[in-house]
Structure formats: C-alpha cells, structure tokens
Design a protein that fits this description.
This protein is mainly alpha-helical and about 260 residues long. The protein has 2 domains: about 60 residues; about 180 residues. The protein is built from 8 helices and 4 strands. The longest helix is centred in the first third of the chain and has 46 residues.
C-alpha cells in the first residue's frame, strides 16, 4: 500500500497534474459534502484547468524540441570529430609542398633559364596546387559544419574555445600565406619562361650553349620572396592546438555546448 501511495505521489508531483487533481477534489468535496457548487464556478474551474494544461503542454513541447535539436546537433558534431577535423593533420604535407616550391624558386632566383628550370618549377607548382586545393576544401567544409552546429544551437565549449580559436586562426593564416605564394610562383614561372623564349629567339642553338641573358628575380620587385619563410613551425603549432582541442577522449559533450 505504501509503495502505491509513493508512486502516486511521484506522478502527482507534476505541477499541472497536481493543480487539476486539486481542482477536481474541490468540486467533489463541494458537490458531495457541502452541496453548494454552481455551474458558473464549475465553468471557471474547468477553464482554469484547461489553461494550465495548455501552458504545461507548451512547456513540455518546448523542452522536448530543445532536447531534440541538441541531439541532432551532436550527431553533426560526432561526424565532424570522427570524419572531418582530423584532416587538419595534412598541414604537414602542405608544409612540405610549400617548402619544396619556395626552395625551387630560390634556386632559380638568378639563373640562365633552360627548359629543365621551367619543368622543375612547373612540377613544384603543381604539387603545391594539389595541397592548396585540399586545404581550401577542408576550410570550406569545416565552415559548413560549424554553420550547421550553430543552426542546431551548438557552439564550442568555453573550456575548449582558446585551442579551437588558435587552431582556426593558424589554419587561416597558413592558407593565406600559401595562396599568396601560389599566385606569386605562377607569375615567377611566367617570367622565367619569357626569358627562356627570348633567349631562344635570339639564338636557335641557345639550349646547347651556356650563354645568354640571365633571369634575375630581383628585377621584379613585386615578385620578391624575401619575406617568405618555412611554415613548418606554424603548421605544427596549429596541429598541436587541434590535438589539445580534441583531447584524449574526443567527447563531443566536452567540445561543444548547447544553448
């Protein structure tokens, strides 16, 4: 008997249910004991019960919608962590391609241009371009994930915000530097090729000789690469922030919070 009463107490703990039950008890007592209830009073009580029940239903629905939305958001967060964000570790490959291209350009800063110089520069540019496209796609995809998370009311947790922001800033900085070098390398390649063509026009047997007009990058002030240095350290720092952001257990509950 005690257990049944305990279960009923838990059930009637809900404020709306308690109110409705209380109102019914009042009418029951008044009808069968005092014999004094009238129709207008019953109508007022029923209207009140309906209003409270409606408000209760709205609150329950609102809470359910909030929970459902958060659950859907966390599904996207799990996909981001498991299938997407680890792609940032490819920054090491981008860094190597960057260094290779930068070294190739520096090797040809002052050179008698031959066909092999053009071919080696082209090869370095193509390899670098593949990594740039991959990085650009990664950033675009990442921004789409974050946009979806915000749509579902999720954002990076306060505890992880510093490392996430540092990771994102580092990634954007690397991408900007790489895109600038890529555009500049294409223009440098054109100038090397132009000098080669000019030398060939002057002397048909130019490629068999070791003489002609030298290509000098210093003649093109807007193509200077003096301010460029290896991005390896920046890449490693960005990856380090990524690993600190992810943590050891990759728990999306720790990484993202619901509003």
């Amino acid at each position: 008997m005690f257990e049944k009463i305990k279960k009923l107490a838990i059930y009637f703990n809900h404020s709306a249910i308690s109110f409705c039950v209380g109102a019914v008890l009042v009418m029951f007592i008044d009808t069968y004991i005092t014999k004094g209830i009238d129709s207008s009073f019953i109508s007022a009580i029923m209207d009140t019960i309906m209003a409270v029940a409606t408000i209760s239903a709205v609150l329950v629905a609102k809470n359910y919608l909030k929970q459902f939305t958060a659950q859907e958001g966390y599904k996207i967060a799990i996909e981001l962590i498991n299938n997407h964000i680890r792609g940032i570790e490819q920054l090491d490959i981008l860094s190597e391609a960057y260094d290779s291209l930068l070294n190739e350009i520096r090797k040809n800063e002052h050179v008698l241009p031959k066909r092999n110089h053009i071919e080696s520069t082209d090869k370095a540019i193509r390899s670098f371009a593949v990594q740039i496209v991959r990085t650009n796609n990664f950033i675009k995809e990442h921004n789409e994930y974050i946009f979806k998370l915000r749509t579902y009311g999720l954002s990076v947790s306060d505890e992880k915000l510093y490392d996430y922001s540092a990771m994102k800033d580092g990634l954007n900085e690397i991408n900007e530097i790489c895109n600038e070098l890529y555009k500049k390398s294409q223009r440098i390649r054109i100038q090397i090729n132009n000098q080669f063509d000019e030398n060939v026009k002057r002397d048909y047997n130019y490629e068999r000789k070791n003489e002609g007009t030298m290509f000098s990058l210093s003649r093109f002030k807007n193509l200077s690469i003096d301010n460029y240095s290896s991005i390896k350290e920046l890449s490693q720092k960005t990856i380090s922030h990524y690993k600190l952001f992810i943590g050891e257990d990759n728990s999306v509950i720790k990484l993202f919070k619901a509003k």
